[in-house]
Amino acid sequence: MKTAYISDPFFLRHETGAHPESPNRLRAITRAVEPLNDRLIPLTPITASKSILRLNHTPEHIETVQEASAHAEALDPDTVCSLDSYEAACKAVGAGITAIDGIVEGRFDRAFCAVRPPGHHATPTQSMGFCLFNNIAITARYAQTQGFEKVMIIDFDVHHGNGTQDAFYTDDTVFYFSTHQTFAYPGTGMENHRGEGAGEGYTANFLIMPDSGDTEVLEIYHDDLPPLVEHFAPDIILVSAGYDLHESDPLAQLNVTTEGIREIVRSILDTADVPFVFFLEGGYDVEALGENVRVTLEEMLV
Ligand SMILES: [Zn+2]
């Protein structure tokens, strides 16, 4: 399948100091995917405008991030900003926009957005958990303006994407599916949280106990995910690809192998014959991260 790889050296300028979400993550990914470069369509993202950011965030929230970045101040103890963080965050959002535009133009069917800062913890009103703006939520709203009425978001990061869930909790046009480790940050995403009002039944959370591995996680991707996708019948699928479910990750306690991640990705891609856009979220063992993004791209290219 024609697959775009959307990234930008500018993402290295989101400087975080002594922090697990470091520029070295992207350097390792760049090195690891090099053998695939001649099969991928390389693109640099646009810089998202404020009107794009407002598809998911309040003007006050956007202002807060811009101000924090202008003064290189932290938004909370976990979520830090350097002078270029605001622009990097706008390009991380922009990667999703560039992906949707390329798909609409028929240039490719799949895209991987190798971006930082990550996005899935950012709520419509607040940055948190290393995330400034919610890249995938904004892209979902933008995709809807481009004719993709029903958007499915699949989140395999080891942490629950509370910001993404918040954005679509009462909405039946965006289905949010997440697998995440029990007792992990930020503590949201209970299995009985299934959406509200019109959105009831359009959120699905699956908790995974610490020390679980490929078998437990793949059971969900093989047995629970496919009927949900088939029933919702999305026009496009966006994926929060967080690699902190890997056995070597320092921030979580799951034991998923690189081949397990390959099988998760393959299972997701097998659910529907629609465009796919993947967004880098977590993953903090830098070397494993590179390898895990490479196997993701190998599966996307098939
Ligand atoms: Zn995570």
Q: What can you see in these coordinates?
A:
By secondary structure, this protein is of the alpha/beta class. It has a single domain (3-301), classed as Arginase, Chain A (3-Layer(aba) Sandwich), CATH 3.40.800.20. The chain is built from nine helices and eight strands. Strands 2-1-3-8-7-4-5-6 form an eight-stranded parallel beta sheet, sandwiched between helices. The mean pLDDT is 98. The protein binds zinc ion (ZN). Zinc ion (ZN) binds at residues 157-159, 242, 244, 281-282.
List keywords for this structure.
binds zinc ion, 302 residues, 8 strands, alpha/beta, Arginase, Chain A
Indicate the topology.
Layout: E1 3-6, H1 23-33, E2 41-43, H2 50-53, H3 59-70, H4 85-104, E3 110-113, H5 135-145, E4 151-155, H6 162-168, E5 174-181, E6 203-208, H7 214-232, E7 236-241, H8 258-269, E8 276-280, H9 286-301
Parallel strand pairs: 1-2, 1-3, 3-8, 4-5, 4-7, 5-6, 7-8
Zinc ion binds next to loops.
Tally of structural domains: 1
* Biggest sheet features: 8 strands, parallel
CATH homologous superfamily identity = Histone deacetylase domain
Strand order of the largest sheet: 2-1-3-8-7-4-5-6
How many angstroms separate the termini? 6 Å
Helix content: 25-40%
Mean pLDDT: 98
Indicate the CATH topology: Arginase, Chain A
Q: Counting H and I runs of at least 4 residues, what is the number of helices? A: 9
The CATH class name reads Alpha Beta
Question: In oligomeric terms, what are we looking at?
Answer: single chain
By secondary-structure content and strand pairing, the structural class works out as: alpha/beta
**Which ligands are bound?**
zinc ion
Output the radius of gyration.
17 Å
DSSP summary, beta strand count? 8
Low-confidence sequence ranges: none
| Coarse morphology | globular
- Our estimate of the beta-strand percent is 5-15%
Order of helices and strands: EHEHHHEHEHEEHEHEH
